[in-house]
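Supplementary Methods. Inverse-folding protocol.

Structures were first reduced to a discrete structure-token string of length 243. This string, shown here, constituted the complete conditioning input.
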């Protein structure tokens, strides 16, 4: 090979080596490099709930709600079903009387906010409540869902055509009927007291945020019911119940 060809070959080799070095130098390093000046704090998991503490808090709450129920029963001022003949749940009647469940709840939310439930549904049945602020309240009340349903006894309005002229005041008879039913409800509450607290604890443990709030001394908030409802006429607010 001539000297000139050897020189050309050598120059080509040097050129290729230079290109390869340049390519390697330009390849970005995909490995992240820690910033020595940055402190990385790992998220801390929420503390594990102490079931015994939750149960104790619910036991205290149950005492409170139970005393409210007894006070409501003994006052004998119950809502009047003036909306339909037969049985009907009435959250707030035309005279401003709250039902038993609403009265107990009002001890935490206040009467005005509790009355806002009627603007959304004055014929609400606690048995149908599956979520939202009302269920959250039940979960932090110390009562089971079944017990609050038993407390919310529907009102009865007889058909005037079925009332004999000499029959006593039907409203007084209705108060006596409800009072007797509330005696039975009290018996139910007291006979299953400890078992119900256990059941209420099991239910609340499935909602850790509510449980932690209760341990901090807070009951479930009224949520959307805290907002003032749209001003409506009484006849519209208390529309006839669904058939």
């Amino acid at each position: 090979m001539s000297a000139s060809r050897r020189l050309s070959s050598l120059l080509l080799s040097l050129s290729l080596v230079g290109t390869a070095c340049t390519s390697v130098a330009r390849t970005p390093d995909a490995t992240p490099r820690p910033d020595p000046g940055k402190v990385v704090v790992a998220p801390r998991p929420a503390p594990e709930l102490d079931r015994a503490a939750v149960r104790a808090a619910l036991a205290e709450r149950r005492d409170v709600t139970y005393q409210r129920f007894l006070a409501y029963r003994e006052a004998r001022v119950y809502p009047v079903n003036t909306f339909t003949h037969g049985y009907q749940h009435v959250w707030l009647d035309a005279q401003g009387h709250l039902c038993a469940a609403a009265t107990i709840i009002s001890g935490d939310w206040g009467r005005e906010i509790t009355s806002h439930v009627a603007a959304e549904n004055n014929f609400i049945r606690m048995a149908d409540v599956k979520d939202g602020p009302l269920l959250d309240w039940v979960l932090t009340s110390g009562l089971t869902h079944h017990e609050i349903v038993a407390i919310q006894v529907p009102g009865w309005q007889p058909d005037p055509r079925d009332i004999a002229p000499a029959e006593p005041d039907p409203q007084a008879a209705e108060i006596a009927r409800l009072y007797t039913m509330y005696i039975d409800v009290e018996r139910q509450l007291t006979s299953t007291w400890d078992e119900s607290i256990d059941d209420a604890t099991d239910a609340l443990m499935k909602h850790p945020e509510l449980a932690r709030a209760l341990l901090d001394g807070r009951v479930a908030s009224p949520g959307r019911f805290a907002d003032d409802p749209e001003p409506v006429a009484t006849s519209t607010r208390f529309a006839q119940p669904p058939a």
